[in-house]
Amino acid sequence: MNYRAIFRINEPEVIAEEIEGEVIILNFDSGSYYSLNENAMGIWRLLQAGYPSTAILGAWQAGCASDEEQVAAAFTTFMEQLQQERLIVPAALAAIPADAPLMTVMNPAEGLALQKFTDLQNLLLLDPIHDVDEMGWPHPAP
Amino acid sequence: MSQPTISVIIPVYNSECYLAAAIESVLRQSTPATEILVIDDGSSDGSIAITQRYAPLVHCYQQPHGGPGAARNLGVSVAQSELLAFLDADDLWLPDKLEHQLAHLQRHPEVDMVFGQVEQFVSPELAPDQQPAAPAQPIMAGLHVGAMLIRRHSFARVGAFATTWTIGEFIDWYGRAQTVGLQAAILPMVVMRRRLHQTNLTRRTQDRRSDYLQILKMRLDEKRGHKQD
Q: What are the Cα distances from residue B18, in Å, to B12, B26, B60, B127?
């Protein structure tokens, strides 16, 4: 992969939030939702902050302190997964944070895991979105 | 064998544009509902007047604005029938929806709730610049509250719709239904038409959509057997 690439979270199709120490991600287009393990959460936070892949990989390698090639391979696989699931998309050059990304010490044995769930797919794709504002549902065009 | 009774619950909030079409799609059922309950959730438009046009075939109940979950719960509390069905005020049933679903429940006593396919359509009266894009998948297996017919005692095993959420309350409810082990069937025919209008999509960009993530987190914790507070 091109480590110089910059990705952004695929908003508004994708939303994500850290809840009680777990990042939950939802892709409205597919109806799939995801959970990240602790290592992957560190990567996700850096993606959210706008760091380029090369900086994120560097932070991940520094955090792991183990075989660089193996660590890079795990990172590449994880980033490809995120792209395949349309959770991240290439971004134009944007405001990249000036400071180097920091990552706490990682557990390389746990790798980078993106867990995917499709059990609520149809529910999420068809969910009736109501209870709008005081205007209710839109009025027909005049 | 006598036919079980069916209550249809239609929550309404400022939906005067579409409400009459929804009510008429219920009145046109080949197997008629026993009672039709429109629950007005504090509308300030002409929704109540529209409902009153259909009296005494349709009964209207009013509550202060509390959201669709609260409105459906009020409907369940006043419903008299053995089977419960729901329809949102902007959606439509196909004329044989209840007939197919009732027949399935009668043939399969082990099934608690029955769904069908849902066809999505772009609301035709909207001006071109108001129309949302046509869905990639217009017909889908309809795990949608408006496509469900459920035995009342099965509904009671799951309990009321949560009123905590501003959106996603059926996802929460369905997750609980799975947890208590309700058996669901999905019929192969289209039973409901879901109207797509601008609001369906713009809501996704609003802050309240993070309710979905809270619901999904709860769902994951349940799957993993975490104790819920």
A: 10, 13, 16, 16
Q: Which residues of B touch A127 (CB under 8 A)?
A: 144, 167-168, 170-171, 212
Distance CA B151, CA B158 (A): 11
Q: Which of B10, B130, B143, B229 to mutate to test the interface with A (most CBs of A within 10 A)?
A: B143
CB contact (8 A) between residue A131 and residue B68: yes
What does pTM read for this prediction?
0.78
User: How does pLDDT run across A14-55, given as a tens digit for each residue?
Assistant: 989 999 889 999 998 888 999 998 889 989 988 888 888 888
| Residues B157-194: tens digit of each pLDDT | 999 999 887 678 888 899 899 889 999 999 999 999 99
Predicted ipTM? 0.81
Among A48, A53, A14, A20, CA closest to A34: A14
Quick count: other Cβ atoms within 10 Å of Cβ B27? Answer: 16
Contact B35, B60 (CB under 8 A): no
Nearest to A128 among B130, B170, B198 (CB): B170
